[in-house]
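Friendly challenge for the regulars: who can give me the structure tokens for this chain first? No prize, just bragging rights.
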Amino acid sequence: MRVAVFAFILISISFLCCIKPEEPADILYPYLEVAYRFSDPDVAVFSKQMAINASNSAVFFAGEPANSYEAHIYRRPLSYSAEIEQVTLAGGFSGQRNVYALGLDDADVIYYQLLIESGNDSVLHAIMQADPAMLFGSPPPQVKYGFNGTDVGFDPFKGAPADFFSVSSDGRVFIIGWSKTGYYYLNFRDREPVVLPIPNAVEAVIGPDGFIYAYVDGSSNIYINSLLLNEPQLIGNGRYISFNGNEEIGFVKNSLFHIYSMVTGETRSFYPPKNVANSDYLMNATLSQDGASVAFRIFDSADSD
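First reply, four minutes later:
Bragging rights claimed.
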């Protein structure tokens, strides 16, 4: 079990530039206000990407509590007085107990992958749907979609908890990733689901429209692609990619947070907050749906990510 202590930051960004003549124009930071800071010492964070609800009032992530080997989904209200809340309850379904990744649609409905025991000792890969107010497994989550492990690189009798999970705004298109078998694009909008591998990806995230997705290869090159593009388009270099609802992609490189516009093709670069210790790493930086906030976690010496 990882026993690291992490702090989460929600950054509210107002795009009113505070120009500093001594700084190069391409890395000017707009006015940045640290709206909240909180730490949760009893939960080790597993989420490679976090999720911010539509009202920017809570961050959702997957993690493992102290003295336990079961990973759950947690909700952290952005208030100094509110406490971290456990969303899922292990053992609610037969099979897999651990949840390492999740996503939210534009109605804040929670989605995650779960293994469910099926007949003849086989397993079903299920995409679960849960109420955003779910607490300790209540109200119970529902199976939204199911797919075969053979579609995502497993044999019929094996499977694994997903390491990464991303969902479109309508909750019908997903990117799910496993360290063992790679990343896959899953589209459930039609009668027959479309399941496609994303070659060479070490990170991948679906756009809100469910058509465009972004991924990072082993050299930290960032590409955008879709079923309509003939080949991937290189847009930058970095890690921790995420979409907002404004056709923009956020990523981190050289301790700066970058936002790439798919409309203009331009990339803006921003400094991390200067009044937050260890914020230079901007680990797992995730844009909110409206693009006004960025959630990230602070690097810890015990972190192995």
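The CA atoms of residues 102 and 112 lie 5 Å apart. DSSP finds no helices and 25 strands in the chain. Your move, everyone else.
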